[in-house]
Amino acid transporter (Nitrolancea hollandica Lb), 439 residues
Amino acid sequence: MISIFGVIAIGLWKYTSGSLPAFSPPSDWVTEYHGVQAVSLFLLLRAFSSGLSALTGMEAISNSVPVFQPPAIRNARVTLFWMGAILAVMFSGISFLATHMAVIPDPNEQATVLSMVTRLLVGESWYFYLVQFATMLILVLAANTSFAGFPRLAAILAQDRYFPHQFLFRGERLAFTTGIIVLAVLAAALEVIFRGSVDALIPLYAVGVFTAFTLAQSGMVVHWWRSRERGWRYSMAINGFGAAMTGVATVVIAVSKFLSGAWIVMVLVPLIIWQLRKIHRHYDNVAEQLRVDAEKVKTRPVTWAQGSTVVVPIDSLNQAAVRAIDYAQGISNDVTVVHVAYDPEDAELLRQRWGEAGMRLPLVLIESPYRELVGPLVNYIEQLHSERDTATMTVVVPEFVPAHLYEVPLHNQTAWRLRTTLWTHPRIVVTSVPYHLMK
């Protein structure tokens, strides 16, 4: 920010002193431009849509209100005001200098307008490279906002059963690993497909961002209409105005940038929404088929048998877990049911359901503050095996089999990971008890 203000100050000083340099484009650049276009509505819309792209990123403040120091709303409002003011000054200053220096965009996308303006003002001095380095850092931080926001959004959608459950997985550093990896792969694919062209990528970005703005503002309108909290009319009017403005911006960008790549987003968004609804319907079907009735669980016949120590790891009390427990009780009278607890609230809910179902087996809860599943479970099994000093130990793994092969990637492969880890133990036998879904 300071470096950009420095460029603007140097440029204004040279402008007032009459020593502002003029830009002389190479001859091959001039052929890319076909004279001065007539000022038409379409040209104005294109310029307007291109300028709107400069406003993206300001939503990061509104998205981060909960992390502000109290009073959070006031601090976020002040930050947003100053961010808007700084953006307006920098954007207007660079645009003013570029216009009066006759700087035109590089058709080969080898140099930015900012770098050309800076080079003309200060030459290739240390200050020129300072501005370039500062710009690079800002772009890196801007790219990092996606890696901070998308994994959280994907986890929320996965929790609501609109995204595959793999996006709920947290790594050892408590980051949503799957979301980060998927975003990195998709970003790399876009870079390869569009050959790193910023002009080609901006229309995709702008349409997507302003579509999200419109949906968010419209959602807040619905929220205020339903909640009818104090001052809801004023808040709904503000969000309604925001939805209208961002909606107009979305339409303008979509129309003016349609042939420049915006059509891709307009085609992909409905397809993605359709796919999300299919995923949600699949998870609803799975939950319906796995749901257990506490009374039926209490009255089910159970056959006890002698045998080795059996451990049954479960994620929740569902049909697949009940079938695995029944199988375990059929092969041994020494059965231990284990659950790796990520969240204390979920663990307490499982304990409550366990008691309501009248389960006659003890439920062992293993705390995992780092949200790791296989490691704590394997450690517990190894410890139990050494304590019991039995010849063999059987681990009965419940898993459900989706009705269609293409639905398999929607589910965590926990059973497969556990089997793969325990196969290396010579005195531990791993048995899978499948529960086949019908739809």
